[in-house]
Amino acid sequence: MKFILASGNPHKAEELNQLFEKSAVEIVAAERKLDVIEDSETFHANAQKKAEEYYKVFKAPIVSDDSGLV
After folding, report:
1. How far is CA 29 from CA 21, 34, 37, 40, 65, in A?
2. Is 66 in the active site?
3. pTM, 2 dp
């Protein structure tokens, strides 16, 4: 199953694919980075926000994260 990564960083997609290399999951970098304002109070809420915005544009399953700066 193919997922689009909600990020403008194709290197993150490569790293995630290494984690899933023995599965049927494939992570691909989004064709372009979307400008999503990450103003939520938690990492989870920011990741959810990005996933929803990327889905609206790409209409495909999305993988999203927000590791924040801590």
Report:
1. 16, 12, 19, 23, 13
2. yes
3. 0.86
How far is 59 from 70, CA to CA, in rounded Å?
32
Residues in the chain, overall count: 70
Tokens linked to 56: 């609206």
CA distances 3 to 7, 8, 20, 42, 63, Å, are: 12, 14, 12, 23, 6
53 vs 49: CA distance, rounded Å: 6
Give me the residues paired with residue 63 across strands.
5
8-64: pLDDT as tens digits: 788 989 999 999 989 999 999 999 999 999 999 999 999 999 999 999 999 999 999
Set 35, 39, 65, 66: catalytic member: 66
Predicted pLDDT at 66:
83
